[in-house]
Amino acid sequence: MTQALYATLREITTATITTVLLKKGIRKCWMAGPKPLVPGGPRLVGPAFTMRFVPAREDLATPESWAKPISTRGAIEAMPEGCIAVADAMGITSAGIFGDILTMRMMKRNVTALVTDGAVRDKAGVLASKLPTWCNGAASPASVNGLTFVGWEEPIGCGGCAVFPGDVIVCDDDGAVVIPQNLVSFVAEEGAEHERMETWIVGEVERGARLPGLYPMNEETRVRYDAWKKGK
Amino acid sequence: MTQALYATLREITTATITTVLLKKGIRKCWMAGPKPLVPGGPRLVGPAFTMRFVPAREDLATPESWAKPISTRGAIEAMPEGCIAVADAMGITSAGIFGDILTMRMMKRNVTALVTDGAVRDKAGVLASKLPTWCNGAASPASVNGLTFVGWEEPIGCGGCAVFPGDVIVCDDDGAVVIPQNLVSFVAEEGAEHERMETWIVGEVERGARLPGLYPMNEETRVRYDAWKKGK
Amino acid sequence: MTQALYATLREITTATITTVLLKKGIRKCWMAGPKPLVPGGPRLVGPAFTMRFVPAREDLATPESWAKPISTRGAIEAMPEGCIAVADAMGITSAGIFGDILTMRMMKRNVTALVTDGAVRDKAGVLASKLPTWCNGAASPASVNGLTFVGWEEPIGCGGCAVFPGDVIVCDDDGAVVIPQNLVSFVAEEGAEHERMETWIVGEVERGARLPGLYPMNEETRVRYDAWKKGK
Amino acid sequence: MTQALYATLREITTATITTVLLKKGIRKCWMAGPKPLVPGGPRLVGPAFTMRFVPAREDLATPESWAKPISTRGAIEAMPEGCIAVADAMGITSAGIFGDILTMRMMKRNVTALVTDGAVRDKAGVLASKLPTWCNGAASPASVNGLTFVGWEEPIGCGGCAVFPGDVIVCDDDGAVVIPQNLVSFVAEEGAEHERMETWIVGEVERGARLPGLYPMNEETRVRYDAWKKGK
Amino acid sequence: MTQALYATLREITTATITTVLLKKGIRKCWMAGPKPLVPGGPRLVGPAFTMRFVPAREDLATPESWAKPISTRGAIEAMPEGCIAVADAMGITSAGIFGDILTMRMMKRNVTALVTDGAVRDKAGVLASKLPTWCNGAASPASVNGLTFVGWEEPIGCGGCAVFPGDVIVCDDDGAVVIPQNLVSFVAEEGAEHERMETWIVGEVERGARLPGLYPMNEETRVRYDAWKKGK
Amino acid sequence: MTQALYATLREITTATITTVLLKKGIRKCWMAGPKPLVPGGPRLVGPAFTMRFVPAREDLATPESWAKPISTRGAIEAMPEGCIAVADAMGITSAGIFGDILTMRMMKRNVTALVTDGAVRDKAGVLASKLPTWCNGAASPASVNGLTFVGWEEPIGCGGCAVFPGDVIVCDDDGAVVIPQNLVSFVAEEGAEHERMETWIVGEVERGARLPGLYPMNEETRVRYDAWKKGK
User: Do D58 and C148 touch (CB under 8 A)?
Assistant: First the structure.
């Protein structure tokens, strides 16, 4: 997974990525739930570092549990530089999985972003920490109010998608998508061409072209597009 | 449906419209789901141009289907100037029904707005296209990921409301409402008076008046209001 | 309930309050639904003034009902200065419980804030009235479209929490929490210490400290923290 | 509310009652949630005795609370003979509001039925107690696990309907409907005629009649029906 | 579509049909919602006759509308013998789309079954009519309480599936599945072989065989199975 | 975990178990979703054997995946005699996790029961296999249609509860509850006494006793109860 590949992916919208993955029969790649806490930022790319929660049980999900080796704290210290941390909160939004202290530490560790189908807490503090975050809202209670942390770097579900450690995550204003590890090169290649094509189509629409025959392109349009591409 | 009528409606809040329709026994006129993509814009009015989706079936809902005569592309080219396009996405928000190329083309065709109980995709591009949009969020996947387009200008449901071609749609920061075609004049007339009355009441509240007897008005208050109205 | 106590609570995040209440076994204190209509404002504190709705019945939930003694209008005139009005809308978000005239009147009566698991209507007007509001979105229809108002200062549910008249409400960007009346002093005391501790921890994280042993603090860290606290 | 009126209502299906109430503009009269615990029993009729729950708060919703004067136990002892107890459980089905001991006591007090949008617990025991019950499933936990009981004979919501003490409840295999107190005579009268008419229509369908013109009846069919009715 | 094909399909479980369709990439073929009103009956097969509802609007969805040409009554008279009527009720279960008179008429017209993601009303009467019905519960209110009927033999959604007129529907105790018209022969052929294979596997499991290598079959197991099949 | 302990637990209702666990502050122990496929059977007890699914991804969740070492097949062969298999299906009910061949094999392996917050498929076959099953309905599609199997004997969530390998599961007509391993003896002891007490109370209610003072017992009632208990 070279940095060049990541640089390419940063130029491909998550919308395009889902279209490219559909060519491989993959429809479940966009996570329902994660939304950018601060819209309008740059597109981010990184390998998934997974975290897993199960529901709270009152004897286990306590502030004391935060000191255990298997804890969100332990997970954070295990995160490699550049990763995108993906937390399976089972879609529960009545407890915030991470607050400002934890996101501040993730920034220190050069984590690229946090993605979850759950909520964050102490939203003002998380914003102040500057960690790019895709989540489903904010909630005051700590994770232990609704969730028990059970481990990291396991297969998880997040927002209706399966995420495996090492899959690649891309996030932008449309949300977060997961690219299966073995399809990353395919997506980068096809996606770059798709973006090029859409750029050309946008120009045509700006000139007043009608959609049928243009998008998707018919034979004649494709000839014109190919000529333009060559001429570039 | 004269332009004068539309001009009148543009001065009536969607809140007032629902109150006026209730006098005719109509409670189901506000669509649950559509929210302004850019809050704070002007109130918009136009005749409904309906579009209908059913759930995706993998053999039909493919990028190839976009080239068919019955496609969202075909629908867009059939939209009359000034209409408000209303898309029945069955409330599904895990696929974006329209992206930037389509909304850009709608702008070119002078469509007034897009309203849907579903999502858009390529949100950044949709914003750039400047098409006023009321939707329920953004999602990366294309419509074919969750939906099959089946036609336009049919009766549809949108956000729990029945919408028929030719009904009038009004959108503002509270969302989108549908006025049955035969009640548009009634709503314009009653609505204008209702707005006048509320403006006067607001003035009274600003002066420190108590609510009981004022809103709704009792006999005595109505006399005062009528005097003010005459004096205007 | 002295003003000093309220001043203390205003410095304690709702996140911290939920953590402190968990020490007393209370997990259900954060209301799901209410979100700040205008994020980024100051934290607000006040005693709960409760209002209760049941579902609409077409013969009762009419604009005419607004003139009855038991009406939202009557409730507003009964609100004491400084209270936080909490409305049980049963989580129904397809009708706006209050619009601009009502929130304007609440401002005149020096109500601190409005909190509801329902929606407001005439959002532009509510914003203009400046009443701090925590709600679950906006909707055009009036309360009578979906709700019947039945009384005030009764026990209610709001966002999955029980709220009793006289409980204390605290709202910030994470939402709204309810503190049982008999635990307010405890929360103020413990909460203030908790904030102090987190401030120190934030400093440690900024200096690059690892989380395990720091948050929560182990024996050694606590010694360092206590020394810092004494030295303050 | 004479026994004769109740006897008439026992011959009218809840389906017919909703159709008759629609003539008065009432659409919200069928409760979503309550289903017969034992299908196929007789239709039951009685005046509503209301009970109200709010969400649990851990310091209040405890087994100890069952000994308080305001408790489900107190409510049961206040139930008049023949009433139908309607419990507003806010649609929460993860706690059973009543178990076998309570339903057994209700049988002793000659309560006609229990209706709730929540669940019962100890289903085997409730069945053994023979109390006719319309509920939304069974759950092991006691009410205090999710709910706090706050009073009886107040206006409540149940399954999306407003229910006031003294309204009349009718339950059969389609569920439970509420008739506003002032419309009971109207419903009994119109409903009886409606049942007569449907009985005649059923006979026509059995003879092979087509539906258009028959149901609803056109002019010619009505003449035939009126003749039959006279001849009866 | 010969009767022989239908006879074959009647021997193939809906479970097997979904497995066979997955080989063609089709995952969305089982309707969420429809359940047998009377479990344990025979498996039923027939071509889909579609019906479509949109949400109710109070001025349109009235008992009077039942006399219109476009009405459920009109639809029933248009149903061909042997069809399975599939009604898109948008998953709304608070109104019963059909009651006893309508299902009785469908029986007279030799309709095979009724399938809907909505509810029926007058459940006792529907049961008495003997029309095989797959629905999502029962509700007292008529369709007009929540729905407006808009047409038949159009593409619809039902329980999250696209259904087109002429698709083939199969219903059993697991629910209802839709087979795209052009895949019916494929499903019949593959499905019959799949059932044969599972019958043999069941025998193996009864003899105590372990699952790995058996289901799905490895090379060696397949040899044994093929031998058995030849010997049959 | 002796057989004697299990025998005791088989005499304690799941309702009572939740009441006893509440004394230890545990409210999350009843699983929302699992219901007995065949009501009215005996109460079952066994140690949890956990299974975990994540959402389907089209390239992984295929019939071919069933032959992998990490598969439901593999899990079944690892189940110890007497265990209760608990499957975390993330509450997804549009795919059946197990069908008749798998439940038949579980019977052969003397598994006590299957519990899941998901669905089964081939319901008729599962019933024929006689494996006691608590699930949330039936669906035709196989697990791979919505789920990817990822492992067994890990901590899981099921119906909103955390379940750890070795916890004890008890199922009856109210559903399924999980007892944390270290509380099993406590529950058995307290639960047995609770059942005894309720039996006595039932007798009192049968004799016509009022509830207040009886249930829960006041001082005087407890004296009478203690006398009865001694006399037994």
Answer: no
Which letter, b or e, does each residue of E147-171 get, where b requires 16 or more Cβ atoms within 10 Å of its Cβ? bbbbbbbbbbbbbbbbbbbbbbbbb
Q: Do E150 and B155 touch (CB under 8 A)?
A: yes
Token output for B146? 């969750």
Is residue C1's pLDDT more than 70?
no
Q: How far apart are the first and last CA of chain C?
A: 29
Beta bridge partners of D116: D87
- Cβ of A141 within 8 Å of Cβ of C35? The answer is no
In chain A, at which residue ranges do the beta strands (DSSP E only) sit?
A: 35-36, 44-55, 84-88, 113-116, 133-135, 147-152, 156-158, 161-163, 168-172, 175-179
Query: C111 to chain B: which residues are within 8 Å by CB?
Result: none
Q: Which amino acid is at C142?
A: A
Distance CA A57, CA F109 (A): 31
Q: What is the DSSP-derived secondary structure letter of residue F220?
A: H
Q: Which residues contact C9 (CB under 8 A, 6 or more apart)?
A: C17, C45, C168, C170, C179, C184, C187, C188, C191
Among F116, F113, F120, F150, smallest CA distance to F137 is for F120
% of residues, chain C, pLDDT over 90 = 92
Q: pLDDT by residue (tens digit) across B220-231? A: 999 999 999 998
Nearest 5°: CA angle at B143, between B137 and B148? 130
Closest CA in chain A for residue B92: A32
Mean pLDDT, to the nearest integer, of F40-51? 97
- Alpha-carbon distance of B82 to B48, in angstroms, equals 10
A122 touching chain C per CB within 8 A: yes
Does residue A115 carry a pLDDT above 70? yes
Subunit partners of chain B (3 or more CB pairs within 8 A): A, C, E
Using the predicted structure, report yes or no on whether residue C209 has a pLDDT greater than 70: yes
Say what the ipTM of the complex is.
Answer: 0.95
Nearest to B73 by CA among A207, A213, A203: A213
Q: How many CB pairs under 8 A join A and F?
A: 71
Q: What DSSP string describes C201-219?
A: HHHHHHTT--STTBTTB-H
Q: Tell me if C186 sits within 8 A of A149, measured CB to CB.
A: no
Instruction: Please state, in angstroms and rounded to a whole number, the distance separating the CA atoms of residues F183 and A204.
Output: 70
Q: What is the mean pLDDT of residues D157-177?
A: 97
- pLDDT tens readout for residues C2-13: 789 999 999 999
Of C26, C90, C151, the CB nearest to D57: C26
Counted residue by residue, chain F has a size of 232
Triad C15, C160, C49: Cα angle to 5°: 80
Is the CB of residue F210 less than 8 Å from the CB of residue D78?
no
Cα-to-chain-centroid distance, residue C85: 9
**Does B174 contact C77 at a Cβ distance shorter than 8 Å?**
no
Interface membership of D14 toward E (CB under 8 Å): yes
Pick from C80, C72, C95, C62: which is nearest to B211 by CA? C72
Which of these, B97, B45, B54, B93, lies nearest to B73 by C-alpha position? Answer: B97
Contact E57 B28 (CB under 8 A): yes
Chain A residue with CA closest to B64: the answer is A216
Distance from CA of E50 to the nearest CA of D (A): 19
What would the two tokens of residue F116 be? 């899941």
Q: Indicate yes or no: CB of B155 within 8 angstroms of CB of E161.
A: no
Quickly state the pLDDT bin for D1 (edges 50, 70, 90): low
Q: Is A96 helix (H, G, I), strand (E, B) or coil?
A: strand
**DSSP 8-state symbol, A43:** -
Lookup result for tokens 């008749």: F100
Model confidence at D10, pLDDT cuts 50, 70, 90, reads very high
DSSP string for residues in F139-178: -SSBGGGTEEEEEESS-EEETTEEE-TT-EEEEETTEEEE
